[in-house]
Amino acid sequence: MDVPLGFQRILKGGVIAVCLAFLAVLLWASGVGADEAPLYVLPLSFVIVIWLGFYGHAVISGRRWAWIAFLALYIFLTEVNLRTRPIGAGGLDWQVAMKLAVWFGGTFLAMLRINSVIELLRTPIGAAAMIFMGFMMLSALWAPDPGDSIVSSILLFCTLLFAMAMVAELAVKDILIGLTIGYCLVVLPSLAISPFMASFAPVNADSLGEADRLRGFTNHPVSLAAICSMLMVCCAALMLYFPKRRIILGGVIVLSLATLMLSQSRMALVAVLASGFIFWLRIRPGASWLIPIGVLAATVVTLTTASVGLENVLPKELVKLVSRSGDVNELLTLTGRSVIWDFTLNQIADAPILGHGHNSAETIFLERFLFFTVTHAHNLILQSLFSVGIVGTLFLVTILIIQLRTFLISPDLFRDVMLLTLLVSGITETAFYTRLPGTLSIVWMFTIALAAYHVVERRRINAALWAGTGGMEEGLSLGAGFGTDRAPGSVTQPGGKRLSESLAG
Length: 505
Known about the structure:
Elements: H1 5-32, H2 38-60, H3 64-79, H4 94-112, H5 114-121, H6 124-138, H7 146-169, H8 172-193, H9 221-241, H10 246-263, H11 266-283, H12 290-308, H13 316-322, H14 328-332, H15 337-350, H16 361-368, H17 380-409, H18 413-425, H19 439-469, H20 472-481, H21 499-503
Helix pairs in contact: 1-2, 2-3, 3-4, 3-8, 4-7, 5-7, 6-7, 6-17, 6-19, 7-19, 8-9, 8-10, 9-10, 9-11, 9-18, 11-18, 15-17, 17-18, 17-19, 18-19, 19-20
């Protein structure tokens, strides 16, 4: 990479400044004691400032490696947990400040590509996402803690802008690389410490995740399992771009699977397997008809189990084998989720239209749910109904319908398997509907941005065909000649991404 002459002078000047600062602090510290913190802090600060200037210049100029590195850092700092606080504790500490810095840094990147972001927001799915975010912010008017609701809504909206900026700037392959690096920075160290400890930070006494379940550098075993599942999907998608690296990527998948098994979280693995199977059926010629049959069968099994009881469907001995603790009641109540869902439905009945307000679940659950410590509904749709009611949930369902339609029209491995994994996870967890940006909410924003990009590129193709043919009838005729999964190779994105790279499964 060619560094401008002026910037080279800044770097040289910075190096000289570091040396002089280190010498000055060394002389000062020799008089007051060599253990003084400024001996290390001040020179280190100069180094950080210099490298931030260098990196900032690379980001602004659109260097591919700089954007990928920021995405990896964004993922890592969002999920890593290095300290323990009581459940429900608020306020700003050093770790929250670190996360806020990277979240608003992502918003800064979005402002650098604001024209492309606005173009993505002007699509149907972009508009639906904007309305949904706006309603979440509006719900602060009747939420128990309006300040927290507004902050949460703003941060989630910033995450959406960040995802759209990344999609506008980077190719799908580059996004996968950034996500994979970020996930590996959490998963691999967590697996490395597993023989010695289950968690880097002390386990909270009120946490429902058993102390023997691996959580590593996250705050809960379910969070670690979700990251493992996302990493497995990313590595599988990267195999299409780097066929010569399949052995390495396969090794990462094996390590991710081992970490997921140590977390003892079952739904994350089920979500990956189910979503992969559904995607395989969709791209398999003549097998798509099995998808509605599978959905119908799953619905029948769920309703049967709910009506007659799991103990009357499966033998108790088999249930004990599947149970994590060996207790039949663990599966009969879905690890206590049936009790949580019953409480949630009663709360939804109190405010069915508008809900209790976005980000109100933690406050209400901690105050009114008396059986054990829990902060959310453990179901995607129930969490949405609880927070934003029927009105807000209709906006959410609209987004999901648009995404599923895009999947049926033009399937894509990364975008659609991620979406299906989120939806399956949403059966027993809140999935991407979180109070603060997390792994699953960030991934969901990326699936929205990629679906919006699909629409934008289709518009560009139609405009190019119209301009090239000089007439509506010929343009429509040529446009019909392209399949839903193909496009002219000359149509590219500002970031250098070809349409086929984003759309082809």
